[in-house]
């Protein structure tokens, strides 16, 4: 039994209000209360926002994985993927993922050519064998992508300092010779091809100088042998301190040799502990944005999850929101000076100004102490004499823990004094990052919107028949992130329990977020409240005990102090199945009101000539013609939501609204003046992209989403075992020893791998032709084995056929266990009155299926005038 002192972090509603009142001051202020001071000079411009820091190595695996809206929201400029038809990994082919990447705003695919080989490190079969493979892959890209082949850039050798050419003294000339012949082969097929290199695992200044000295004078075809894009990797914690020195050294080397400056892509960076953690990622982002280079996050886990920033399919974790904030930056970056430059694991920042939008933005994080932003030279011609300041926070939610819209923790209207402003940020959360937006005051004063919440570290609770383990990610940055650098495990006995007190401010519903790791199998714990069994908590499988997910359990509590306990047994005698699960921390959050989120005009990305104005009732986006406002909204669960657009119309006209690319009819301004239009639509859990256009002069103020749970009765839900099975498709009963989350304790397997092995869902009355969403609860644990550190997961597919209509292919990513079921939505357009829906796959096995739901995309719309 272990009974250490309890450690809690409380962010109460009253505390949030106090923060809102004191977080923003104008003019000089005493900075002694803040340990870390970041100075931001909005008059010192450092160049256009580059946006290159959130590229990804194997961030994509298959079309639709991890989700188009999730990818578009993060909007990586570059992505590094395997060679066409390569054997290194089962998916992630540069050609296969290209359409989705470019559609999401991506600009360049970095092709890892040696990933054509199956082994790691790459097997060396000689340069002639490799040249034949180079020839095949380059010709395939030129043949299949003539319209955009220039967006594919080629890496002839990956980490040659560790593979094939380790001994530089002995292999230097061999590397030069091999570089030349591969370079010339690529250019002989595509004379305009861009070549990237030398792509070493470290910044090796001696090797690099030798290479550049040779390459600038050597003859490769009609020119020299220099790469078009310089690349190397920054793959350790120390590189947070070293990178700027490497960059400056390299640029001086270029000047010394009379070459360049070449574009740079640091096409692998960071450690396991960094990915998904906003407070870590902001440190890397600041490095690469300051130096205006592209950079791709390292691939440590598996392909197709945005390098640990995607949850399941479509859902975002806390780290994704920082990537999205970074992708939202527009205009020019400005000088932001942290308290300690080039020191790992310290506060760092990126700041930008968009004069056309009259908006300043600061992204900051990476430390545990309070931070003061000391802001100067806010131009009155841009910001006026009074500004609205809004502070939002995103923090770690686990690798597989979904995060909704980051809360506004502070907001204030402040008068400027000589263009100066101070903003105080709270300490206590080293894993968090903050976004501070500064705009001219207009409309009503901004207000914070953070609910009462408290966090408890599992290792600080009372432990019975369980053990606390160190997860020191500073000493070993290749460990996966852990809150507080400790967790609780060995939950493998009947008496294993983690117990902690909470004191809540009032009666109501509360959401207990349990950060946990289930080792490739689903499992269960018993949740006791004040010594009585409250509910059985069902956990999803995770990649491993330290690859955290977050499971939410809703409980009702009365005001006052309560004891919460997670136990491996509900009756004190029998272990619950799959109960050997690690626990990291607990968040208890008030959840009394319905799920609702507001996305004001400043949250939108603008295109097609849309512009933001700040007059009268507040910020608004002027639409008309091709102008579009794009919002990325978050839903916590699958079901119906009301999407309400508020606007001022100058006349009548349609609102052109698309949800994930699908048109929503029936929304229009019916008369001039203030109004709103609402559509009740079915949304999958996670991120959806909402695109809004309108008639000339329409002023869009924002978008609000409200969960309409009562409308879920319109869903048509069928357990797979109750559907019509054909061929090898068979019912599988879940044994009592399984911790499976299969509803009804059964599911259907052996679907596909032959045209007749299907599951058929009859159409109910009233589900005629129209736009639908089919949600399938599925399980898929297909994977390759044998890679030293990557988990080579494999997606499975279902062909969804409307009898008498068309066929749509649905993709189902890895879910860690064959009896671990996740929902996955596929858009359908049905054209017949009652043609049954058939699920199958003639060429390969599909996933296991637990349940199927059919939902109309739109239930209702209305348009309300308010003037």
Kindly describe this structure.
There is one protein chain. The chain has 867 residues and is mainly beta. It has 5 domains: 13-48 and 342-440, Immunoglobulin-like (Sandwich), CATH 2.60.40; 55-328, TIM Barrel; 453-590, Sandwich (Jelly Rolls), CATH 2.60.120.260; 596-710, Sandwich (Jelly Rolls); 715-858, Galactose-binding domain-like (Jelly Rolls). 14% of the residues lie in helices and 40% in strands. The chain is built from 10 helices and 59 strands. The strands form 13 sheets. A 10-stranded mixed sheet has the order 2-20-17-3-14-15-16-21-18-19. Helix 4 runs parallel beside helix 5 (168-189), helix 6 runs parallel beside helix 7 (239-257) and helix 8 (278-290) runs parallel beside helix 9 (318-328). The longest helix is centred in the N-terminal third of the chain and has 22 residues, at 168-189.
Break the fold down into its secondary structure elements and pairings.
Layout: E1 8-11, H1 13-22, E2 24-26, E3 36-48, E4 55-57, H2 68-74, E5 78-82, H3 98-103, E6 108-112, H4 127-144, E7 152-155, H5 168-189, E8 194-200, H6 205-217, E9 229-234, H7 239-257, E10 264-269, H8 278-290, E11 294-297, E12 310-311, E13 315-316, H9 318-328, E14 332-337, E15 348-354, E16 359-365, E17 371-376, H10 380-383, E18 386-394, E19 408-415, E20 421-425, E21 433-440, E22 453-457, E23 462-464, E24 467-470, E25 486-489, E26 497-504, E27 508-517, E28 523-529, E29 532-539, E30 549-557, E31 560-567, E32 582-590, E33 596-600, E34 605-607, E35 611-615, E36 618-622, E37 628-635, E38 639-649, E39 653-654, E40 656-659, E41 662-663, E42 668-669, E43 673-683, E44 686-693, E45 699-707, E46 716-719, E47 724-725, E48 730-733, E49 746-749, E50 759-761, E51 770-779, E52 783-784, E53 792-793, E54 796-802, E55 807-812, E56 822-830, E57 837-840, E58 848-856, E59 858-865
Parallel strand pairs: 3-17, 4-5, 4-11, 5-6, 6-7, 7-8, 8-9, 9-10, 10-11
Antiparallel strand pairs: 1-22, 2-20, 3-14, 12-13, 14-15, 15-16, 16-21, 17-20, 18-19, 18-21, 22-32, 23-26, 24-25, 26-31, 27-30, 27-32, 28-29, 28-31, 33-45, 34-37, 35-36, 36-45, 37-44, 38-43, 38-45, 39-42, 40-41, 40-44, 43-59, 46-58, 47-50, 48-49, 50-57, 51-56, 51-58, 52-53, 54-55, 54-57
